[in-house]
Amino acid sequence: MTSEILAAPPVALGTWAWGDSGEAGDGYFGSRLTASGLREVVDKAQSNGFTLWDTAAVYGMGRSETVLAQALKGHARGEYRLSTKFTPQIAGDGDDPVADMLERSLDRLGTDHVDLYWIHNPADVARWTPHLIPLLRSGRIRHVGVSNHDMKEIALADQILGEAGFRVEAVQNHYSLLYRSSERAGILDHCRAHGVRFFSYMVLEQGALTGRYSPARPMPEGSSRAAVYNGILPRLQTLTDRLRAIGDDRDASAADVATAWAIAKGTTPIVGVTNAGHIDGLVRARGIELADDEIAELEALADATGVDTRGSWEHGM
């Protein structure tokens, strides 16, 4: 068994957008990511207690892991935790594709262990989950999570690990005001009942819930997120206006409130950070306590939008 309980800060830090080509201005979000800028992000996050960094082998096909390791240089390994993923769709054809992908991740991350290792999606739970057991026994991974799994798939992974004395300790699914399928399917209740940490990704819906975008100020044309969200921005206006108003009362932004909602629901949001200012927002979100009536109002407004933001990579929960 793992000797320690999986712990995490109130918010985990996402580095998907760090896996771009490395060319300035060529980030997934048009961000001008630089080594010095990302080091500043890391230093500010670490000093504010945000010490769990989430990446994946498939993010930029390894580049996110490499860039993250460079940005973390100067911080002792015991000062931060690393979360990365095995993605079945890019598995090799060797004898042990899970171990092979992990070893490449460890090499890029410059470490001998990963604190939290995920099966990225449920392509074949029975096939891939058993490969985690020797990696847990060796200490190369300390905790196991499953991402984009439904309740049946979570239970199967847990059963397989349980036969060896381990268990699924974390679930990472798309969860936001606009997409609460994991809650409605009972996954959040399951996690609460069994001491499993639920990590929510896309809590800001790629910026659609930050209040920065509106029908008059849409997302940049030609971007993948513009294709998904620009058409529904008119239906989000009432919700984002209310997020902004609640934030105004607390010297916070709409994005801070959307993140605080995810925390209030008992989840650990994974929020993408590409500049040091994002850390200021997480500090604010961490300090916001939403009243029950505010949570209920936001959820009612979100339901009233009638939008479905399920990603093309997701199956129903």
Beta strand %: 5-15%
Whole-number total of structural domains: 1
Rg, Å, rounded: 19 Å
How would you state the average pLDDT, rounded?
A: 93
Distance between the termini: 29 Å
What is the class in the CATH system? Alpha Beta
Shape: globular
Alpha plus pi helix count: 13
Task: Note poorly predicted spans.
Answer: none
Looking at CATH, the homologous superfamily is NADP-dependent oxidoreductase domain
Q: Provide the structure class.
A: alpha/beta
What is the CATH topology descriptor?
A: TIM Barrel
Extended strand count? 8
Which labels suit this protein?
8-stranded parallel beta barrel; 317 residues; alpha/beta; 8 strands; 13% strand; TIM Barrel; single chain; AKR_Detox_Biosynth; 13 helices
Brief summary:
Keywords: Oxidoreductase. This is Aldo/keto reductase. The protein has a single domain, classed as TIM Barrel (Alpha-Beta Barrel).
What features would you describe in this structure?
The chain starts with 11 loop residues before the first strand and ends in a 12-residue tail after the last helix. The model has no long low-confidence stretch (mean pLDDT 93). It is globular, with a radius of gyration of 19 Å. The chain has helices at residues 35-47, 63-72, 97-109, 125-128, 132-138, 151-162, 181-184, 187-194, 224-229, 233-248, 254-264, 276-287, 292-305, and strands at 12-14, 52-54, 81-86, 114-119, 141-147, 170-174, 197-201, 268-272. Helix 1 (35-47) packs parallel to helix 12 (276-287), helix 10 packs antiparallel against helix 13 (292-305) and helix 11 crosses helix 12. The protein is of the alpha/beta class and 317 residues long. 41% of the residues lie in helices and 13% in strands. The chain has one domain: TIM Barrel, CATH 3.20.20.100. It contains 13 helices and 8 strands. Helix 6 (151-162) links the parallel strand 5 (141-147) and strand 6. An 8-stranded parallel β-barrel has the order 1-2-3-4-5-6-7-8, surrounded by 4 helices. Residues 11-302 form the NADP-dependent oxidoreductase domain. It holds the Pfam family Aldo_ket_red. Keywords: Oxidoreductase. It comes from Actinomadura fibrosa. This is Aldo/keto reductase.
